[in-house]
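Before going further, learn to read the protein records used in this course. Taken together, the tokens spell out the fold as the letters spell out the chain. A record is reproduced here so that you can trace the correspondence yourselves:

***
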Amino acid sequence: MNAVCVRLELYDTKSFIYWNRAVKEKDPDPECITGTPLVCAKVETFNRASEPFCSGVLRALWDFTGDMRPWGEWVKRQILAIQLIDYILRGVAQVMFVNNSLSGLLIVGGLFLQNPWWALNGLLGTAISTVSAIALRQNRDAVSAGLHGYNGSLVGILMAVFSAKGDWYPWLFIPNVLLSMLCPVVSSALSAITSKWDVPIFTLPFNILICLHISATGAAHPFFPQLPWGRLTEAWLPVFLSVPVGVGQVFGCDNPWTGGVILLALLLCSPTICFHAILGSIAGLCTGLALAAPPADVYSGLWGYNSVLSCIAIGGVFYALTWQTHILALTCAFFCAYVSSATSKLMSVLSLPACTWPFCLSTLIFLLLSSENPALCRLPLAAVSYPEENRRYLRQLKAWGRGRAQSSIQEISVRGKCQTTVRLHLSLSLYLQKYLCVSFPVGNTGASHTPRHVWEQQHTRGRRCETSEGNRAEKM
């Protein structure tokens, strides 16, 4: 018996679902095949043995057109590594508004044909951006469609194109990874704004990040400049002193002792705030060294004070402190240092200082981040306190939620038992009243109800209705 292949195009009320099934039945029932009561739009039965070869090839190729939905359904059942490959290829293709992994593979081939170094940076940017979106628990359907990868792809490619160091410069991987990791953060923040008007963000995250990088570094800016060994040993002391100086620069002070006293004051209030202040200053210092900033600016703490504020704000003040929040705060500190460099150069055209504009902009972007990760819990402004108290507040909130859920479950179970008891009670009382004429108390009011009277009233009301209907019929 030849296998009869059935081609079904089914859809439910939520989304179109495309099915290709082969069954050994002549008249298959769509509901039996799918197992769900879907609406059948089209049923097409054909015999694969009698089908022409060309037609079979065209049908096979048809599955790889459009958004490759059968392929996508198969990928969802595979391991994460295979899913990531599909997400990355779709992310490359989404630059051209194409949700097709095969199209993405062809585009990657064209990029390697142009320049392998550019293609490698583009793939790295797409991969880092996609993994970052998964770690931040962004919408999984958007991730699988490549919508969190195309901005990272453009960032990686254009950073390699604009680099004055030429091809195969390995230090370019570090800013590529950093900016690609920030793509989902900027995308989520912009989506929170544009979603009010139901418009897409297009490639705004790419434009923001690549302009930020170029304005902060310049096209011919060196990365990680090499210093002679003799000068390197002499530079260690001001490098270490720039950490407390970066904290003191929040108040405009460039004295390391003043910064140390401020750190002691932070430690007195909250060890978490003190720790994140040090981390933020180190992040600004490392970013300044990586971007080959003037040593005087790095040692004077001008690269650190905005990162200090950003790291404190995200690391436990406005977010409840978890290890995921800690990583987010460190990322925000590096991003803020980038913004500081770009803002300083832009404001210098107007002969204005950067002040704390970088801190405000970068922190607001990270606070507008929307994530399905329960570990990234942004606190309401009315509940914001110091990090340790915020963490206790979160624990109490979770404990209250668990207690409320358990009490609701117990209440539902007790209510079910009570309803069952009342039904049995009422049935028994009706039986006793009807056949034994014995009163039986029902409920907890203490009153003695007589279900027999209720039963007689119902039957009397029924007889009255029948009598009234008969009289109405006689009049007619």
Notes: The radius of gyration is 34 Å. The chain has a mean pLDDT of 75.
